[in-house]
Amino acid sequence: MANPLYDKLFAPHENSATAFITDPIDNTVVSYADFITHAAQVANSLSALGLNAGDRLAAQIGKSQAALALYAGCVQAGIVFLPLNTAYTASEVEYFVDDSGAKVLVCDPDNEESLTPLCNKLNVTLVTQSKDGLQGSLPNATQSAAKQFDTASRTENDLAAFLYTSGTTGRSKGAMLTQNNLLSNAQTLVQYWEFSSSDKLLHALPVFHTHGLFVATNVVLLAGASMIFEAGFNIDRIMKRLPSASCMMGVPTFYTRLLADERLNKELVSNMRLFISGSAPLLAETHTQFENTTGHRILERYGMTETNMNTSNPYNGERRAGTVGFPLDGVELKITDPSTGEELPQGDIGIIEVRGPNVFKGYWNMPEKTREELRDNGFFITGDLGIIDEDGYVSIVGRNKDLIISGGYNIYPKEIEQLLDEQAGVSESAVIGVPHHDFGETVVGILVGEGSSLDAEAIQEKVESSLARFKHPRKLIVVDELPRNTMGKVQKNVLREQYKDLFTTS
Ligand code: MLC
Ligand code: AMP
Fold first, then answer.
1. Helices (runs of H) and strands (runs of E) counted in the chain
2. From the CA of 70, how far away is ligand 1's center (Å)?
3. Ligand 2 neighbour 304 (Cβ under 6 A)
4. Is 414 inside a domain boundary?
5. CATH code assigned at 51
């Protein structure tokens, strides 16, 4: 039976003794064949939980090879995989599980107690998996499960994953990604970036987002390459691993942290053939400094949860600093007028719109949102502002959406403003992103008080219990009023200018 994603990513390696992954916890090397057997056992345990093809499974678990086997098991069983940021609080998780209609939630045993009430309320089966992937009810069941699984039949238009992305209204949207969205993009990237079975990717990204899960992992699988799987970006471990890797994918913070370390030099990276950056803007200055220190020009590319990868600087050819390169094969990209939607002439700044097999199917249960952002003709309105130069290189010059990107994580101010506005003593708030020396941007909350009852400490506590750590304002500032234009709209640009130097030095 056909299952395009499984057939291309996993099936070819079923009997391969080649190394696939170095476990991030105990450093054991797992072969392709062993990994795929593990995935089949996971698929059997998921089936025993009553999950069928098309059902959703949400997972908020640590990075381990078992976490990846869960993704693979879902692909084989046709289950829609919904990975969640491990930083999310229980109330955030509740929204995702409820909205997606997930039947099963996999969580860390440490969170079992806090997540049980919501699973009881929503009638969701809760199973556990520890950070190392070895303990918990799911690994226990998997260990004794059969080693063969009849791959579920899927078409390329069937859903493979849901990735939640925040929205300007404050409600997160479930981006529905099909098998072909993921597969076509991985196929293009393997070719474009010349991945082969001799590559060894240094993988230090989280595996609950497009970058670490789909771009990195699917490319490695398709090429039959291997991965050094790190639990996170620990600079000492990365320094030790770099000499044996051939490529790395990272967010700009990876590169600024590497540059800040005096151990980085040409010799350390002499085995490397490719450094890739994306998910947030890479400063041209970082690009230049990295080349001066290592001799490598970072290859910058541009993507989104909804679209996978859209553009890339060339592997062979000039990697132009400050640009995200050219549209990938099969991806159409145009710059349009934000008010009319008409295509603008080359050289004008406008909204980036993209169309291609990489573009998602729409937002789960949100037909209106889908219509607003995905045109009938298939073009997706990214909300990023871009320009194409005379040589065809695309640059991102800003955003037409109120979005903060901190260390590669997207944060929508609206979600935080809604929470701040609900707090006693707050009449209104504005949440802005300001430059940050490590994360590129960080969150600042500006509050207008109501009388004298505003208690900034209590508000900070409320924020901490409700929202994931990376969304917390690093500073709350109380002001008498917010700057407004003649239409009464809050001028966030004025606030951003006013507070731009708060976090520029460590
Ligand atoms: C961690 N913290 C963050 C943060 N990451 N705060 C703001 N923004 C972030 N990105 C918190 C920690 O909880 C901690 O809190 C404090 O900040 C310092 O943490 P740290 O130890 O210095 O951070 P670290 O764990 O090293 O993580 C930093 C990071 C990580 C940059 C390595 O955030 C990361 O891996 N980012 C990658 C995100 C990503 O994969 N994005 C891709 C999205 S897909 P405390 O309490 O200790 O102060 C996409 C599409 C595309 O965008 O194009 O790819
Ligand atoms: P996400 O929703 O997490 O997938 O984030 C997607 C957003 O990240 C895009 O809409 C861009 O704003 C931003 N992004 C991704 N890659 C780049 C890049 N290379 N340069 C600038 N911004 C980027």
1. 15, 25
2. 23
3. yes
4. yes
5. 3.40.50.980
Residue 274 inside a domain? The answer is: no
Report the run of H or E that residue 349 belongs to, with start and end. none
Which residue's CA is the closest to the ligand 2 atom numbered 23? Answer: 280
pLDDT by residue, tens only, the chain of 506 residues = 799 999 999 999 999 999 999 987 778 899 999 999 999 999 999 999 999 999 999 999 999 999 999 999 999 999 999 999 999 999 999 999 999 999 999 999 999 999 999 999 999 999 999 999 999 999 999 999 999 999 999 999 999 999 999 877 768 999 999 999 999 999 999 999 999 999 999 999 999 999 999 999 999 999 999 999 999 999 999 999 999 999 999 999 999 999 999 999 999 999 999 999 999 999 999 999 999 999 999 999 999 999 999 999 999 999 999 999 999 999 999 999 999 999 999 999 999 999 999 999 999 999 999 999 999 999 999 999 999 999 999 999 998 888 999 999 999 999 999 999 999 999 999 999 999 999 999 999 999 998 778 898 999 999 999 999 999 999 999 999 999 988 888 999 999 999 999 999 98
Q: Among 85, 86, 207, 469, say which to mutate for ligand 1: greatest number of ligand atoms within 8 Å of CB.
A: 469
396 CB near ligand 2 (under 6 Å): yes
Q: What is the pTM of this model?
A: 0.96
Ligand 1 centroid distance, CA of 281 (Å): 15
> What is the CA(209)–ligand 1 centre distance, in A?
12
**Strands (DSSP E) along 111-169, which ranges?**
125-128, 159-165
Choosing from 103, 126, 154, the residue where a domain stops is 154
Q: Is 78 a pocket residue for ligand 2 (Cβ < 6 Å)?
A: no
Distance between CA atoms of 290 and 319, rounded to whole angstroms?
13
447 is in which domain, residue-wise? 403-498
Which CATH number belongs to the domain containing residue 429 in this structure?
3.30.300.30
**Which pairing describes strands 247-250 and 226-229: parallel, antiparallel, or unpaired?**
unpaired
What is the tally of structural domains in the chain?
A: 2
Q: Which atom of ligand 1 is nearest to the CA of 471?
A: 7
284 lies in some domain: no
405: Cα separation from own chain's centroid: 11
Q: Are 403 and 419 in contact (CB under 8 A)?
A: no
Q: Which residues line ligand 1 (CB under 6 A)?
A: 205-206, 209-212, 232-233, 251, 253, 278-279, 303-305, 406-409, 439, 469-470
The CB of 407 under 6 Å from ligand 2? The reply is: no
Q: What's the rounded Cα separation, in Å, for the pair 61 and 79?
A: 17
**Ligand lying nearest the CA atom of residue 470:** 1
The Å distance, Cα 282 to ligand 2 centre, comes to 11
| Torsion angle of the four alpha carbons 131, 135, 140, 144, in this order, in degrees rounded to the nearest 10 | 90
**Residue whose CA is at the smallest distance from ligand 1 atom 46:** 469
Q: 55 and 47 in contact (C-beta within 8 Å)?
A: no
Residue 349 lies inside a defined structural domain of this protein? no
Helix (H) or strand (E) holding 477: strand 475-479
Residue ending a domain, among 84, 119, 154, is 154
